Backbone:
């Protein structure tokens, strides 16, 4: 197996690189404790990648079931269907083959096959998770969500005519095995490569400034930011370059490891209504507001500081972010982020992206558990000013 130096950082996870996917699955197949296997994926992916047939071949001695109903921003009803399907077929191992929505769905199915009761009840904290998940393998086919490296999932549900996103955090949601194969990313188009790349950058920067950041998360986040700055534009301009894809896949995984420690912050909280109400891809929603929140956090004062380590500490971290971006001050940092977005073909202003109702974002943009991780306190007026500025 093609191990790299970096693997030593990956405690208790099994990570492989380009081209190793089939060999790796064959190795897993030699373990006789896993029988009925469920592959969770998206219909369009199955055709595009042709990888499903190969995975099926690897598990030839097992019974393989496929659940390919996953859509972006997974709805709770769809996940419930998957859980029901897994229970009916006595599934013992779940493979999530796809982007963040697919891997989140696979993780959720694997856990709630073993935890009965109303699924939303667990997300709303009314039910307690008691049992471990069945074995889950994550095979990301995008470099964005980092979901393969986290103990979080996000689901969507309707209530009173509104769409809500709800995260769930639990150690049993962490995948048991991760397979990183950059070859699976080659089918991504430029727009998708660009938007998911911004999700990686947002995870890494938000983790770095999070009030929960520590030495380990900083290490992951810092390296991830540097890789994105060096390789996202290249990756968008050379879609078939495997080396650039590998770099972005690694950046995504590192950022996933970073937010697994710190969680995301205000940028993600505000991005959710932008995605839900204006149909903006998640990474783009984050990218649109990231520079403004970098500036907002850079202007932190003692009175607005939300990090116990103090305002000086936060300011020094923000200065470090400039360095990782290859600049020296906030204006150049914002310029750098904006020109990166333009160079990968994205528009910077909210209205250019069809976002025309700022009140809706302000009303829905405070996912409290994410906003409170931000180093600077944010109120409605701050958010209004930020959104007006980039409208
Ligand atoms: Zn994200």
Residues:
């Amino acid at each position: 197996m093609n191990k790299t130096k970096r693997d030593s950082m990956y405690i208790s996870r099994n990570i492989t690189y380009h081209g190793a996917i089939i060999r790796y699955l064959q190795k897993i197949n030699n373990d006789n404790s896993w029988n009925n296997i469920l592959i969770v994926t998206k219909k369009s992916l199955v055709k595009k990648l042709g990888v499903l047939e190969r995975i099926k071949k690897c598990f030839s001695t097992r019974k393989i079931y496929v659940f390919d109903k996953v859509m972006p921003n997974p709805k709770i009803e769809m996940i419930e269907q998957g859980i029901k399907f897994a229970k009916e077929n006595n599934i013992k191992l779940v493979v999530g083959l796809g982007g963040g929505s697919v891997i989140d769905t696979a993780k959720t199915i694997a856990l709630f096959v073993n935890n009965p009761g109303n699924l939303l009840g667990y997300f709303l904290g009314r039910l307690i998770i008691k049992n471990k998940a069945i074995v889950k393998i994550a095979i990301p086919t995008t470099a964005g969500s980092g979901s393969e490296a986290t103990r979080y999932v996000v689901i969507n549900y309707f209530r009173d005519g509104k769409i809500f996103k709800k995260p769930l955090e639990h150690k049993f949601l962490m995948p048991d095995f991760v397979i990183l194969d950059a070859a699976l990313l080659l089918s991504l188009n430029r727009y998708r490569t660009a938007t998911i790349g911004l999700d990686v950058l947002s995870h890494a920067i938000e983790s770095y400034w999070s009030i929960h950041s520590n030495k380990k998360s900083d290490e992951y986040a810092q390296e991830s930011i540097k890789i994105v700055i060096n390789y996202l534009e290249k990756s968008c301009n050379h879609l078939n370059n495997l080396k650039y894809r590998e770099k972005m896949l690694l950046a995504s995984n590192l950022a996933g490891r970073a937010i697994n420690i710190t969680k995301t912050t205000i940028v993600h909280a505000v991005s959710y209504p932008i995605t839900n109400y204006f149909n903006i891809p998640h990474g783009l929603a984050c990218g649109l507001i990231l520079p403004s929140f970098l500036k907002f956090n850079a202007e932190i004062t003692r009175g607005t500081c939300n990090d116990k380590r103090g305002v000086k500490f936060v300011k020094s971290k923000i200065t470090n972010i400039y360095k990782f971006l290859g600049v020296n001050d906030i204006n150049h940092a914002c310029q750098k982020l904006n020109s990166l977005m333009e160079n990968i073909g994205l528009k910077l202003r909210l209205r250019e992206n069809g976002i025309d109702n700022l009140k809706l974002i302000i009303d829905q943009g405070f996912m409290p558990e994410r906003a409170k991780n931000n180093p600077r306190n944010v109120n409605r007026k701050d958010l209004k000013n930020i959104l007006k500025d980039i409208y």
About this structure: Confidence is low (pLDDT under 50) at residues 1-14. The first strand starts at residue 37 and ends at 40. The beta strands are 37-40, 64-67, 93-98, 135-140, 152-159, 162-169, 177-178.
